[in-house]
Write a structure and sequence with these properties.
The chain has a five-stranded parallel beta sheet, sandwiched between helices. It has a three-stranded antiparallel beta sheet with strand order 1-2-3. Strands 9-10 form a two-stranded antiparallel sheet. The chain is built from 17 helices and ten strands. By secondary structure, the chain is of the alpha/beta class. It has a domain at 69-96 and 146-346: Rossmann fold, CATH 3.40.50. Helix 10 (198-209) crosses helix 11, helix 11 (221-242) crosses helix 17 (335-346) and helix 16 packs across helix 17. Strand 1 and strand 2 (26-31) form a beta hairpin.
């Protein structure tokens, strides 16, 4: 890259704001092509290779670049492990869509917003302004008829209420609590993730409920998994309630797998994209549906998923049953938990 990066940045989506150093107030730009965006499962440091051009610029220089009028991105928010990458890949095959999967810079902003590991001195208004700036940077496209669709990480859900406050369009992906528990308990990596995130999820859920919940040491394996569903469903339900101007649709991933052609058509229509039945059929019959979306080099299918979930349901049957009772008890104590459960049931 060179000193003329500003004109390139203003022209299209080639220069991507990959990461931010919030303490130094700097942004790391990388050079991305349209095919590279299409292939990427995650827009974070896992994309870094020795041949990927990168350049660090100050946030103020970055923010001062005049941009042309840009359409607000569409969003996919989700509870995690519910096919959001798959849906993003399928919709990202449309020519009118530039799909951005899990931009790391949004994860950094939510980390500062929720955890605040280091006090960088942002006021509430400055935090909102910074988020708006990042959203505008992520809104750039390669072609005039394109629109950005951001598939956020599940950890970014606390920002949904701010990002969707105006007339935004979003798809919220979820599944029932029982199916979510089976999904998490079916994999070693997902169980380890649930355990590692227990403290943060307890904190987030307690912030919504307004009082302390169970001690971390008292939670079973399935209860630590349930915290993920509770955190994200409570957060998304709260975002919908506080964003009456937003167009929010809900999609149950298990219902999608039962009727993928119909559900994909509905999802595209929710975003205002016209997709022919023939195109839907070709996408559903194509390789995207039979590979692991986060790592397409591995085979994965709805039938294999169903087999793994059935095994997890059998192995962890007692823990799952006790966890569902525990969540029912939480719902009786906290209306916001009850509202999340009701949302999941009513949207099926």
């Amino acid at each position: 890259m060179n000193e003329d990066w500003q004109s390139t940045f203003a022209k299209d989506a080639t220069l991507f704001p990959h990461l931010a150093d919030l303490q130094k107030d700097q942004v790391l730009l990388s050079t991305m092509s349209e095919p590279r965006f299409r292939q990427a499962s995650f827009l974070d440091q896992r994309l870094f290779t020795p041949d990927l051009p990168r350049q660090v610029v100050s946030w103020s220089d970055f923010a001062s670049v005049p941009l042309p009028p840009l359409e607000k991105p569409h969003y996919i928010f989700h509870v995690g492990h519910v096919g959001s990458t798959l849906i993003s890949r399928l919709l990202g095959e449309l020519d009118c869509v530039l799909a951005l999967r899990e931009p790391a810079i949004l994860r950094q902003l939510v980390d500062e917003h929720v955890n605040r590991p280091v006090d960088i001195g942002w006021t509430v208004s400055e935090r909102t302004q910074r988020l708006q700036q990042v959203e505008s940077w992520l809104s750039r496209v390669f072609h005039a008829d394109q629109r950005v669709m951001i598939k956020a990480s599940s950890f970014v859900s606390p920002l949904a209420k701010t990002l969707l406050a105006s007339e935004a369009t979003a798809l919220f992906l979820y599944t029932s609590l029982g199916r979510y528990l089976q999904t998490i308990l079916a994999g070693d990596a997902s169980k380890q993730e649930a355990a590692a995130l227990t403290d943060l999820r307890l904190l987030r859920l307690e912030q919504h409920c307004g009082e302390p919940l169970d001690r971390k040491d008292n939670l079973s394996l399935a209860q630590t998994a349930a915290l993920g569903w509770l955190c994200e469903m409570v957060t998304l339900t709260d975002a919908e309630r506080n964003c009456p101007q937003a167009r929010i649709g809900w999609l149950d991933f298990d219902q999608f797998l039962l009727r993928p052609d119909e559900q994909l058509q509905l999802a595209a229509g929710h975003f205002g994209w016209d997709i022919s039945p023939e195109h839907v059929e070709s996408l559903i019959a194509g390789p995207i549906m039979t590979s692991y979306s986060k790592a397409p080099e591995f085979d994965y299918s709805a039938s294999l998923r169903e087999q793994l979930l059935a095994e997890a349901a059998q192995i962890h049957a007692d823990d799952i049953r006790q966890t569902l009772l525990w969540v029912d008890q939480l719902a009786r104590r906290f209306p916001i938990v009850a509202a999340a459960l009701a949302t999941a049931e009513s949207r099926r």
